[in-house]
Amino acid sequence: ALDPYFLGQGADHWAARYFHAGEWVVVNGNEWRSFYQTEEDAQAAAATWGGTALYVEALPEELQLQADDHAGLAPLVSAGLIDEDTVEFGPGIAPENLTFAWSRAQPEGLDKFHDTLDITYGSGSVARIVMPNADDYLGWGVESFRFTDGRTLSMAELLALAPPRPEYYNLIQGTEGSDILIGTYAADAITGGDGNDQLYGLDGGDVLGGGTGDDYLEGGAGDDVFLFNRGDGFDLIYDLGLETDEDTLRFGEGIAPGDVVVSRDEWSLYLNVRGTQDVAVLDGWYFDPAGRIERVEFADGTVWDGSSLEGRAYDSHIAGTAGNDRLNGSAGRDLIEGFEGDDVLNGRAGADAMIGGAGNDTYYVDEAGDAVTELADEGTDRVISAISYTLGDHFENLTLSGTAAIDGTGNALDNVIVGNAASNRLDGQAGDDRLTGGASDDVLLGGEGNDVLNGSGGADAMTGGAGNDAYHVDDAGDAVTEQADEGTDRVISHISYTLGDNIENLTLSGSEAISGTGNALDNRIVGNDASNTLDGQAGDDRLTGGAADDILLGGEGNDVLNGSGGADAMAGGAGNDIYYVDDAGDAVGELAADGTDRVMASITYLLADNVENLTLTGTDNIAGAGNALDNTLTGNAGINLLAGGEGIDRLNGGAELDFLEGGAGNDVLADTVGAGYFNGGSGNDSLRGDGAADFYLGGAGNDSINTGTGADVIAFNLGDGQDTIAASIGSDNVLSLGGGIAYADISLRKSGNHLVIDIGASDSITLANWYASPGNRSVPTLQVIAEAMAGFDAGGADPLRDNRVESFDFAGLVDAFDAARAANPGLTSWAITNALTQFHLAGSDTAALGGDLAYQYGRSGTLAGMGVNAAQEVLGDTQFGVLAQQLRPLAGLQEGALRLG
């Protein structure tokens, strides 16, 4: 209605003239563009952008209408341009009887929200008057109210009776698509939703929120509010208001002041949310003062005014891609964002803001005003700084550059901090840090955590702090400091070094022949591959040499000395020490009363004086021998020969077939895994086997033999004393007698549950608990080496003395003894000659049960000189103890490096 009316009056562009009367406009063709307060500004804009500067004339006073100016509509109604719509009230209803209430609704049939005036009359009936919006056609709605008493009230007069109208926004909502949403000349609330939307608020104090997507938001006259939240994308914001307006950009929850970085180009401001693609662009902020956003508000209450906003603006914004970018700034204040990928960001001159984003990023810092930002879980990042620098949150590594003496400080993460060639102070703070100095004299502070400190060149001062720290030392001037109870620490030294207080471990590095010395703590000292002298001093130390010939000194305490390769000289000193021997040239030195010591040998080894114990290691077939002390000898996983020598020794076999020789003294021989050879030697010895087939030779003295299960052979000679054989399950053992025992020397007697075999005047064999259970009768066979007895006649007429080896049914002999006892209860001893012929099994000159072991011991009284390999062939035969094995010439048995003793 107004367009033809005003055009008829010659008032073109009436809407612009209404809002901008008295201002200047730049006109290009018939298009009115930007408005300015002064002619000077308009002329300057016209010169820059093209067009003509014109003064905006005001409309005639009588034609101007304000929002809700119902009285101002009267001339238009009178002129017939607007129809007059009237509400008529019935009888009994007068203006004085009406009550009013304001509301907001979208009446049925209408596509917009409207203010409503609810008029209550009579007994509670309500007439809802829908008020026009500013963008409705003139004449839309009700103009007058008529009562039956003759009175007529205009809308303006009726509103004077009602309470003040609240300020409601016109709600305009977009869809999931890309919308164009235009507000009214009143206060609108416009929400774009999804999609790339265009929002035009026009006049009024509007609230515009683009939502997700890349949106264009344009305000007009009035105090407008532009909403921006995380995930809103790239929004371009422009305001067409007046310089007197106060427009606001309001960030939502989740966007703090520290999350926003401000940059600029020639005309606009860019507000980037760190680490995201979200950007709010204040278009033309520097170009048109009237179009400026005056305030930025945050959910935490922080407000930036225009000057604060301008002061935060960077000169340029440089954005990377999803790839591995190399981004360089300018001489000004730059905002650089790498986004995804392993990026390199270098702001160069100026106080720059750099945001790497996801990926393993590298930042160059050269000014105190440079700000770098990383979020959690965005990769392993590094700052290369030419100034003193402290790592911010989520940064792992720092490298100092240039030649200035500057400092580098870490954070709570596990940092790698590297100095430059000048004197630096490197402080790791918390975390497991790695600090590396340069060529000059540096100060390195590890802080909490398990740190590695390497001063590199120069005389460096290094303090690890709490945690298990490692120090690299390469200069005599290097100083390492640790306090008590600050963890287990280690020095890695390229020079000869003595551990300071509170440092536990030392490792020598490099290839020089240097020395390492411990302290009073329990030290672990490791040499390099040159010839080292390692001295543990006091404490329970562990010293380990290298490939060359080393000297290891344990000092006081229970020390472990391992020369590793080379011919090493090792002296444990006082305490219970352990030596590792792997070279024939290794020498172990112990003094008397220096503790109980042990050698761990991977080669054949004879215990040195004053060393008590020996353990063989590895899997090689080797031997170990004791000394005059009470020794404990233990085998390895190979075939071993263990010889106790003098003293009360304990010999423990390993996993394979082992040969155990007790020697002098009351020894304990045990091999509970695999077949074994047991020779107790002199003394009252204890021999214990397992389920395999074993050979037992108690030797002189009163010995105790526990065979275990398996087909075992027990050898006994005249003069071997009074031995006891424990009961075992299975009737599969062989008792082999020799050494000059005559048949007439052998008799049986019962002692309690034991069966005693008396031999001569003083020797005996007790088969323990023979009578306690039938299962205990484990010796069914008796073998006699007849060649060794008087009266032996090879090939003679006596069937019991004509062969070297004679075998008998021992179980049958015992049965005959038991029968004789039954017949004569007073019988105490029974000679086996009473039934030998009856229970004679066989004779042989070429074979024996137990093979060469049983035969040679029974014949000559010793197995000394027999090679271990020959003995192994006998014991390793699956028929050992079960069938007679062929005898071999003595000369062929006495071969090999390892011989029985």
Set out the fold topology.
Blueprint: H1 2-8, H2 14-20, E1 24-28, E2 31-36, H3 39-49, E3 52-55, H4 74-78, E4 86-88, E5 99-105, E6 114-121, E7 125-130, E8 144-146, E9 152-154, H5 155-161, E10 170-173, E11 180-182, E12 188-191, E13 198-200, E14 207-209, E15 216-219, E16 225-228, E17 234-239, E18 248-251, E19 260-264, E20 269-273, E21 279-282, E22 295-297, E23 303-305, H6 306-311, E24 313-314, E25 316-319, E26 326-328, E27 334-337, E28 344-346, E29 353-355, E30 362-365, E31 371-373, E32 382-385, E33 389-390, E34 397-400, E35 407-409, E36 416-418, E37 425-427, E38 434-436, E39 443-445, E40 452-454, E41 461-463, E42 470-473, E43 479-481, E44 490-493, E45 497-498, E46 505-508, E47 515-517, E48 524-526, E49 533-535, E50 542-544, E51 551-553, E52 560-562, E53 569-571, E54 578-581, E55 587-589, E56 598-601, E57 605-606, E58 613-616, E59 623-625, E60 632-634, E61 641-643, E62 650-652, E63 658-661, E64 668-670, E65 676-679, E66 686-688, E67 695-697, E68 704-706, E69 713-717, E70 722-725, E71 734-738, E72 746-751, E73 754-759, E74 763-767, ...
Parallel strand pairs: 4-8, 10-12, 11-13, 12-14, 13-15, 14-16, 15-17, 16-18, 17-21, 18-22, 19-24, 25-27, 26-28, 27-29, 28-30, 29-31, 30-32, 32-34, 33-35, 34-36, 35-37, 36-38, 37-39, 38-40, 39-41, 40-42, 41-43, 42-44, 44-46, 45-47, 46-48, 47-49, 48-50, 49-51, 50-52, 51-53, 52-54, 53-55, 54-56, 56-58, ...
Antiparallel strand pairs: 1-2, 1-3, 5-6, 6-7, 8-9, 19-20, 20-21, 22-23, 72-73, 72-77, 73-74, 75-76, 76-78, 79-80
